[in-house]
Amino acid sequence: MSTADHRTLDVPDSLEGERVDAVMAQLFGVSRSRAADLIARGLVELDGGAAAKSDRVLGGARLEVTFPVEQDPLLVVPEIVEGIGIVHDDDEIVVIDKPVGVAVHPSPGWSGPTVVGHLAGAGFRIATSGASERQGIVQRLDVGTSGVMVIAKSERAYSLLKNAFRERTVDKTYHALVQGYPDPLEGTVDAPIGRHPGTSDHRFAVVADGRPSVTHYETLEAHRFASLLEVHLETGRTHQIRVHMSALKHPCVGDLTYGADPVLAQRLGLRRQWLHAVRLGFEHPATGEQVEYSTEYPADLESALDVVRGL
């Protein structure tokens, strides 16, 4: 596939004396701001030399422009992604163990590996329902969160599973290592989540006009610096566990975005939040039988937990 489109034109006498960016706008049909960007990136030559946007052109001058072919950020690129494990596969669904650093589907601003790209590269046929970049996707996990997730292979499975997640009949269980000791040791956080006020990044927060969000937790282990929690989600908001734990003043260990202690993270060798989707239970779309799938902690989380237990 070509990664650039090279175009060459001679400047007509009628445009003599005009600025290069204005000439490009007329000859190539681009905006002047787009022309200025191409010039700034060194992709425009005038009579064989680098052009500046304020240069004035002569009639008959040779104008050469390289137009990069920008890849669609939502394009699914088939590729085998190292670390994705297949937990279960049948005609209706495929259940995977997603590693950290892998997005579920392509999105603007993300150029890394994706679950849908891996499934396409590995030859899996998945449902065609849903937007083109996330066909078959009925749930999502953050790039920085690992664990079990299900993808629909048939249209029937897509419809039934989408509805199950919408109706909150799917049992989503996570384990989270959080700083300190939650008080009480088990409970429910019912607090709306929305975009973090006053920021333009991808952070979220508990805000009065946010979407209803409910998280149930119980303490499995309590150690000197951190506690291991089992978390069940009623809702599935972006960053829900991370936001709710941060709101309780017990952020996930290693979650620097939401207030975790960087010194503790470094001590445990963590480069991401300690959060893992351990189990997923739902009614199988073909049989109606209740099924459950689970995954083990990845090596970095297991190692960090071992260190916490020994402190």
From TrEMBL:
Classification via Pfam families: PseudoU_synth_2 (PF00849), S4 (PF01479)
Coiled coil: none
Origin: domain of life: Bacteria
Keyword Nucleotide-binding (UniProt): no
Residues that span the membrane, as ranges: none
Function: Responsible for synthesis of pseudouridine from uracil.
Name of the protein this chain belongs to: Pseudouridine synthase
